[in-house]
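Human: If only I could read backbone structure tokens as easily as an amino acid sequence. Take your time, and here it is.
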Amino acid sequence: MRLCGITAPAADTEAGTAAKHTMAAVIGGRKVMCVPVNSGSPCDGYVPPRTGKLYVSQCWAGKTDIALEMIRRGAARAVPEWSDGYYR
């Protein structure tokens, strides 16, 4: 799964490991719900529904938009053109 509208450090880097820990903290054991691109996400029409083997989706942990929270915590960077500015 890849979160739409953001980019994060590569998983095999120190920053990527930190981002992975941040995402785990954001999720905090809550149920995660995702809406795939082309199914009503803010990235519909701006990014393909898949990158390689990964599906691109907007996801929430409870009521928390995971991508927005990753941006807020500095673990990911918004790419506004991938979401028509939804993520900044």
Notes: The domain at 2-82 is CATH 2.40.50.90 (OB fold (Dihydrolipoamide Acetyltransferase, E2P)). The two ends are 20 Å apart (CA to CA).
